[in-house]
Specification:
It is a single chain. With 235 residues, the protein is of the alpha+beta class. The protein has 6 helices and 9 strands; from the N terminus they run H-H-E-E-E-E-H-E-E-E-E-E-H-H-H. A 7-stranded mixed sheet has the order 1-9-3-4-6-7-2, with no helix packed on it. 23% of the residues are buried.
Length: 235
């Protein structure tokens, strides 16, 4: 069974109440407006990442010796980053942007890149690493990437689960009501909120604590022995 984007848009118009089901037909202009709104809704998920249940595992990046910053195309949010030494994979620790860019450190050390931060940019984001990579290390990124725009003939079921398509129908119907100044049906709005809560439960934020970071303030950093001998790693 297929679900074309045009079918989703038509059903969203009926759900919004702007077009009366069985009494009116969705016009060509409404289909065009609906497609624009659907793609705008998909694009907004670049920011509203908590309502995107899909993760991807990107293994294409290889570090360049001495290079700190790498642009990750279409990346919306990063859950974890690792690097490889031969067949052994090592985790990299996330550091907040404030600590990464605002803490004292030595800028010209080349070693193992065991800490990182991520800064959103247009069409993706910049991944920063410290220490500067001393060699070519394969990087594996686990995160969320942009949802792609669709056209009227796109089969939505080849991209999204049926349940997520249903969420998009309710979200698009609400968007249509807002666009045309019409109140969204309270019962439909309640169902939309239930979908949103369930989606946030599928991918809740990781609130686990991490005690050790190279850029911690006040005594939590690493010594020169760690840098030159252990390369930032301790037993």
């Amino acid at each position: 069974m297929t679900m074309l984007a045009q079918t989703l848009i038509t059903r969203a118009w009926y759900l919004s109440g702007i077009v009366a089901r069985n009494l009116q037909t969705v016009t060509g202009d409404q289909i065009t407006d609906g497609l624009n709104m659907l793609n705008a809704l998909l694009d907004f998920k670049q920011i509203e990442t908590e309502l995107v249940p899909y993760y991807e595992y990107d293994e294409t990046l290889v570090t360049t010796p001495g290079q700190e910053k790498y642009f990750i195309e279409h990346c919306a949010a990063i859950e974890s980053v690792t690097f490889n030494l031969d067949v052994v994979r090592y985790p990299m620790e996330y550091v907040t942007q404030r600590n990464y860019f605002g803490s004292a450190r030595v800028d010209n050390i080349s070693s193992l890149p065991f800490s990182y931060t991520f800064n959103r940019k247009r069409n993706g984001g910049d991944l920063y690493m410290y220490f500067l990579p001393e060699g070519e290390f394969p990087i594996k990124i686990f995160g969320k990437f942009f949802l792609t725009d669709v056209d009227l003939d796109t089969d939505m079921e080849t991209i999204y689960d049926r349940s997520y398509i249903e969420y998009l129908r309710y979200a698009l119907a609400q968007y249509m009501c807002s666009e045309f100044g019409v109140e969204f049906n309270p019962q439909s709005d309640l169902i939309l909120k239930q979908y949103q809560r369930k989606l946030m439960y599928v991918t809740p934020p990781d609130l686990s604590a991490k005690k050790q970071t190279i850029l911690a303030r006040g005594g939590g950093g690493f010594s020169w022995g760690d840098v030159n001998l252990g390369k930032g790693w301790r037993p």
